[in-house]
Amino acid sequence: MARLVERPPKYLPEEWRHSNKLKYSSAEKERQTAERIRDETNRLVVETDQTTTRTQSDVDKKLDQRVTDVNYWKAELDRQHEESNSEIESLLKFKARLEQAIVDTEIPLKVASDCLVIREERVKIDNVHDDVEVQLLK
């Protein structure tokens, strides 16, 4: 046969108030906890934002200083490079002048040497050590 469904038990108004009071108390505690967590979260957000801003500012300053340093040293290297190139160019010109001077003195040296050899071939009284020979020996 069909079974009868039992009715839920009936509670007294005092039991109902007590249950509602417990539910209200529990809900209030959860609301306070949620509020405290929200406030703590907001405080942490502000603190993190301030720390991030301060750190970013420090990093920006350091990067700006580094860029300034790198630009200074790049300019210094460029200047040194230009000075070195200029000095090399001057030395190459001077080397060319010296090489030309050596070439230019070969003929007079050959002539002076030939003259000294010819003077050495002089005989007797003509073999004189005079001003001409002194000049040729220079």
TrEMBL record:
Residues 26-42 have a biased composition (Basic and acidic residues). It is found in: Cytoplasm, Cytoskeleton, Cilium axoneme; Cytoplasm, Cytoskeleton, Flagellum axoneme. Residues 23-44 are annotated as: Disordered. The keyword Coiled coil applies. It comes from the Eukaryota. GO terms for biological process: cilium assembly; cilium movement involved in cell motility. Belongs to the tektin family. PANTHER family: TEKTIN, TEKTIN-1. This is Tektin. It comes from Paramuricea clavata (Red gorgonian).
